[in-house]
């Protein structure tokens, strides 16, 4: 998805990952629309294996996603990157990055494993976290409806947002209210979208 004309400042938006991407989809698009009103264009790519991409998700890893993000940045001629949550893990190394509530790979993986264990327990199946992770490191796992390959599991365990070109970290507290990714179902908060867009614009125009 592209919003706004090319030329001038153009942002590559790297979305939250996995189930968090679903919960923040509306929020993400509204932030992009607010940026357009400030004269800032943006591009939201589908990472390989996600949404309209035909690539198998089970073959993807943090590294393949970072390579895809780097290629997208070059193809669309972006000047900056805005990451949401786990999107910070796959940001290109050489572009200025603004990170909203950046998450570590281990925290994302931990939440997805916990969700699987709760679901399994409700179905009368007892699962052990360490046993699941050991299986995932070698054979992959299905978590929250996503079939993740062993390389993705291993990389998520240690993945950290890259610091190289970070401009700023925007905390959830800067927007007010709890993060939308914490809600049980996808939802939207216009005031939070407005607040994030305003902070991004202020940083870019400072």
TrEMBL record:
Q: What Gene3D superfamilies does this protein map onto?
A: alpha/beta hydrolase
* Name recorded for this polypeptide: Uncharacterized protein
Task: Specify the species.
Answer: Croceibacterium selenioxidans
InterPro entries membership:
AB_hydrolase_fold
Q: Which domain of life is it from?
A: Bacteria
């Amino acid at each position: 998805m592209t919003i706004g004309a090319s030329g001038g400042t153009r942002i590559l938006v790297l979305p939250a990952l996995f189930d968090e991407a679903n919960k923040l989809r509306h929020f993400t698009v509204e932030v992009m629309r607010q940026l357009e009103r400030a004269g800032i264009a943006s591009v939201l790519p589908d990472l390989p294996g996600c949404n309209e991409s035909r690539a198998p998700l089970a073959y993807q890893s943090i590294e393949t996603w970072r390579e895809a993000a780097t290629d997208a940045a070059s193809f669309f001629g972006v000047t900056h990157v805005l990451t949401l949550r786990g999107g910070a893990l796959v940001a290109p190394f050489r572009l200025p990055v603004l990170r909203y509530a950046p998450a570590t790979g281990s925290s994302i993986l931990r939440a997805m494993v916990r969700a699987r264990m709760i679901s399994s327990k409700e179905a009368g199946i007892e699962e052990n976290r360490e046993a699941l992770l050991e299986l995932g490191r070698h054979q992959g796992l299905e978590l929250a409806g996503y079939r993740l390959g062993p390389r993705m599991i291993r990389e998520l365990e240690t993945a950290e947002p890259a610091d190289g070109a970070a401009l700023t970290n925007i905390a959830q507290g800067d927007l007010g209210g709890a993060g939308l990714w914490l809600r049980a179902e996808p939802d939207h908060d216009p005031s939070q979208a407005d607040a994030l867009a305003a902070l991004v614009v202020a940083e870019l125009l400072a």
